[in-house]
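Example 3.2
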Amino acid sequence: MLEMALKRRDEQIRIENKIETAKKMIEDNFSIESITRYTGLTEEEIRKLLQ
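Structure, written as tokens:
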């Protein structure tokens, strides 16, 4: 159980890091396509960050 909780936590941290990177890329006017390529986030996820 502890191992599963640690894996979930690690995955959550990875997602948070991707979101933070995407936000910085948005601030620097990167295209959605570039953000998708470099972060692995979907276009839909990136568009939500733009709102």
